[in-house]
Design a protein that fits this description.
Strand 1 and strand 2 form a beta hairpin. With 415 residues, the chain is α/β, with parallel strands linked by helices. Helix content is 43%, strand content 10%. The longest helix is centred in the N-terminal third of the chain and has 16 residues. It has three domains: 197 residues, 3-Layer(aba) Sandwich (Rossmann fold), CATH 3.40.50; 60 residues, no CATH class; 108 residues, no CATH class. It has a five-stranded parallel beta sheet with strand order 4-5-6-3-7. A three-stranded antiparallel beta sheet has the order 8-10-9. Strands 1-2 form a two-stranded antiparallel sheet.
Length: 415
C-alpha cells in the first residue's frame, strides 16, 4: 500500500490520525495485532507512555476499529485475526475525548473542552443539555446512545493528564481539574451497563486522582510484558519496514547501512517498558530522522522538561547518578506519580527521560538510566544552565567543550 512519491515513500511525520494515514498511503508499522488483543476483551485499560510515542495514533486506530471502518484495515494483521468473527466490523457508538492541544491555564478550560465534546454528541443523538452538570450530560449520552443503537458505548480518552501537567505551577487550578475529573469520569463506573470498552492514555498516572480511584476496574498495562512493544518501534520492525529509508539516510550521510543502523540505535533506541520486553525506538524521532536524513534531537526539540530541571536543581540532585546506574525504583513508583512526592524519579521515567536498565526480581528493584544519546545529551544540555552559570556557547564551559575534554582525557585540566 506504500506507493512512491517523488521516488520516496510518504513518511507519517506528525501524522496521528489512523484514517488519514491509511487513506493517504503513509508508511505504517502494523500494530493491529495488539489492537485485536485489546478489543476482544471487555476490560477497561489504561496505558502510560511518554509524549510523542504513538498514543494518539493508537487511540485513533481503536476508534476506527470500533466505528467499523473495515476498509482502513485491509492487509493488516487484524483483518486476518477477525476472519471467523461475523460481528468484527459492527460499528459501536464511540466517545473519543482528545485532551491534547488546549491551554489549560485558562479558567474553566477543562470544563469548556469537555462541554464542547458533549455538545457535538448531543446533536448527534438528539440529547438536550438543559443546564445539566457535565457528568449528568455524559451519563445521559451513554444511556441514550446505547438505547438508540442497541450497542454499548466505547469511551476513548487521549492524554487525560494534560489538564494536570499543564498546571504544575498552579496548584489551585490543578486541584480544581482533579475535582472535575472526579465528577465526570466517575460516570464510567456507574454507567458500566452502557459501556462496551474503555481505553485511557496519558504520560503519567497521577496517584489518588479519581479517574483511577473511582474507576478502580481500570487495568493498567503500562508495565505489562504483553504490551511492552505496543507503542514504539522494535528492531525487527525497523529493519522490516524502513529499509528504503535506512538506505537513503546512509547514502545521504555517506556511511554504510550497518553503520547507519548502529547510529540510529545509539540515538533513538533503548526504551524498555518491561524488564523482559524488547528495546523500542522512539517512533517520533525515528520518522523525523528519516524525513530530514539527519541524526537530530527531534523528540527533545518538541518539548523541554523545564519544570523537571528546576525541581532537580532545587533539591540539589546529584546529576552524576544519571550515568552511574544508581537510580532505583519499585513497580508502584514507576506506575503511580504523586505530585506531592519530592522524588522526581517516577516522573522522569514516565515522561521518557529515564528507562528500565536492569531489574532485580528478588527484591522487585528497577534500575533506571537514560535510554539513548538523544535523551542523554538533550537532558544534560538543559541541566547545564541550572548547575553552571554563564555556560552558553562560546563560554569555554559549555557542554560541548566539556565533552571534548572528556574525549581527550584532559578533564582534570578543564577550567
Amino acid at each position: 500500500m506504500n506507493t512512491a512519491y517523488n521516488n520516496e515513500r510518504k513518511l507519517p511525520a506528525g501524522i496521528q490520525d489512523f484514517e488519514k494515514l491509511r487513506e493517504l498511503d503513509y508508511v505504517y508499522v502494523d500494530k493491529t495485532e495488539y489492537v485485536y488483543k485489546l478489543v476482544k476483551t471487555s476490560i477497561p485499560f489504561f496505558l502510560s507512555r511518554p509524549r510523542r510515542f504513538g498514543k494518539s495514533l493508537l487511540l485513533s486506530t481503536l476508534r476506527a476499529f470500533w466505528e467499523g471502518k473495515k476498509e482502513l484495515f485491509k492487509g493488516l494483521a487484524i483483518e486476518r485475526l477477525v476472519t471467523d468473527d461475523p460481528n468484527a466490523w459492527t460499528p459501536y457508538p464511540v466517545f473519543y475525548f482528545d485532551l491534547n492541544n488546549q491551554n489549560y491555564t485558562r479558567k474553566n478550560a477543562l470544563e469548556n473542552v469537555l462541554s464542547a465534546h458533549l455538545s457535538k454528541w448531543e446533536t448527534q443523538y438528539s440529547c438536550t443539555a438543559d443546564n445539566k452538570p457535565l457528568e449528568v450530560r455524559f451519563a445521559d449520552l451513554l444511556e441514550t446512545a446505547h438505547k438508540q443503537t442497541g450497542r454499548r458505548c466505547v469511551v476513548l480518552v487521549d492524554e487525560y493528564d494534560k489538564p494536570l501537567l499543564d498546571l504544575y505551577d498552579l496548584p489551585e487550578q490543578k486541584e480544581h481539574n482533579k475535582a472535575v475529573f472526579k465528577g465526570f469520569f466517575g460516570n464510567l463506573k456507574s454507567c458500566d451497563a452502557h459501556i462496551r470498552f474503555v481505553f485511557i492514555t496519558g504520560v503519567t498516572k497521577f496517584h489518588k486522582v479519581s479517574i483511577f480511584s473511582d474507576l478502580n476496574q481500570l487495568t493498567d498495562i503500562s508495565l505489562n510484558e504483553d504490551y511492552a512493544e505496543l507503542c514504539g518501534i522494535t528492531e525487527e520492525e525497523l529493519r522490516r519496514v524502513f529499509m528504503p529509508e535506512i538506505k537513503a539516510l546512509a547514502v545521504k550521510r555517506k556511511i554504510d547501512e550497518e553503520t547507519c543502523l548502529q547510529m540510529l540505535k545509539k540515538q533513538y533506541d533503548g526504551y524498555h517498558f518491561h524488564q523482559d520486553g524488547q528495546n523500542v525506538y522512539n517512533p517520533y524521532s525515528l520518522i523525523k530522522s528519516f524525513f530530514a536524513k539527519e541524526f537530530g534531537a527531534y523528540w527533545f526539540e518538541s518539548g523541554t522538561p523545564s519544570f523537571l530541571v528546576k525541581r532537580l536543581r532545587a533539591m540539589d540532585f546529584d546529576i552524576r547518578r544519571f550515568n552511574d546506574k544508581t537510580l532505583y525504583a519499585s513497580e508502584s513508583m514507576l506506575k503511580d506519580y504523586s505530585d506531592d512526592n519530592p522524588d522526581p524519579i517516577p516522573l522522569l521515567y514516565q515522561t521518557g527521560y529515564l528507562t528500565i536498565a536492569d531489574y532485580d526480581p528478588e527484591v522487585g528493584e528497577y534500575t533506571l538510566s537514560f535510554p539513548n544519546n538523544e535523551v542523554k545529551y538533550g537532558f544534560l544540555d538543559c541541566l547545564m544552565p541550572e548547575y553552571v552559570n554563564d555556560c552558553g556557547s562560546g563560554s569555554g564551559i559549555d557542554i560541548f567543550t566539556l565533552r571534548r575534554y572528556v574525549i581527550r582525557g584532559e578533564l582534570e585540566s578543564y577550567k
